[in-house]
Amino acid sequence: MLMDWKIVVPLLAVAFIMTSAAGTPGGVVDADMKDQATRDALQFAVAEYNKGTNDPYVWQVAKVVKAQKQVVAGMKYFFTVQMARTLCRKGGVEKDCAVHPGPAVTNQCTFEVWSRPWLGAIQLIKNDCQP
């Protein structure tokens, strides 16, 4: 019986270390902005933000401050970004929109996006922007 513990305890310690190193399953981890799904989620959040504002101009991401994700029933993305007002008017045909010249009008925004691709569902859960 004593011999069993000499084997079991080190195995449990190794399992604990490996689990800790990999992160908590379902925990929030940093997201890679090179990943297409992450970029699509941010693009969706920005499009929803632009739909919801009364501003006649389009806003775009000037800087990604933080991007994270969490495996849930699908994937949740958490973004903290600096948004800047562009010269493009909503409903316009411009593809490339330059940031407004002069002192840029910016907002710090926090977006939370829930994506469930197998259902074709994507939803903006949180949209909080402050000047």
Which characteristics define this entry?
131 residues, alpha+beta, 5-stranded antiparallel sheet, elongated, Cystatin_sf, cysteine-type endopeptidase inhibitor activity
Explain what this protein looks like in three dimensions.
This protein is an alpha+beta fold. Helices cover 29% and strands 43% of the residues. The chain has two helices and five strands. The chain has helices spanning 2-22, 36-52, and strands at 28-30, 57-72, 74-89, 106-116, 121-130. The protein has a five-stranded antiparallel beta sheet, with helices on one face. The radius of gyration is 21 Å and the shape is elongated. The termini are far apart.
Compressed to H and E, one letter per element, the order equals HEHEEEE
Number of strands: 5
- Biggest pleated-sheet summary: 5 strands, antiparallel
Overall pLDDT level = 84
Radius of gyration: 21 Å
CA distance, first residue to last residue: 66 Å
- Report the uncertain regions: 13-22
Q: How do the strands of the widest beta sheet line up side by side?
A: 1-2-3-4-5
The portion of residues forming beta strands comes to 35-45%
User: Which structural class matches the secondary elements?
Assistant: alpha+beta
- Taken from the alpha-carbon principal axes, the silhouette is elongated
- The helix fraction, in percent, is 25-40%
Number of helices: 2
Which helices and strands occur, and which strands form pairs?
Blueprint (H helix, E strand, L loop, with lengths): L1 H21 L5 E3 L5 H17 L4 E16 L1 E16 L16 E11 L4 E10 L1
Antiparallel strand pairs: 1-2, 2-3, 3-4, 4-5
GO molecular function: cysteine-type endopeptidase inhibitor activity
InterPro entries: Cystatin_dom, Cystatin_sf, Prot_inh_cystat_CS
Protein name: Cystatin-like
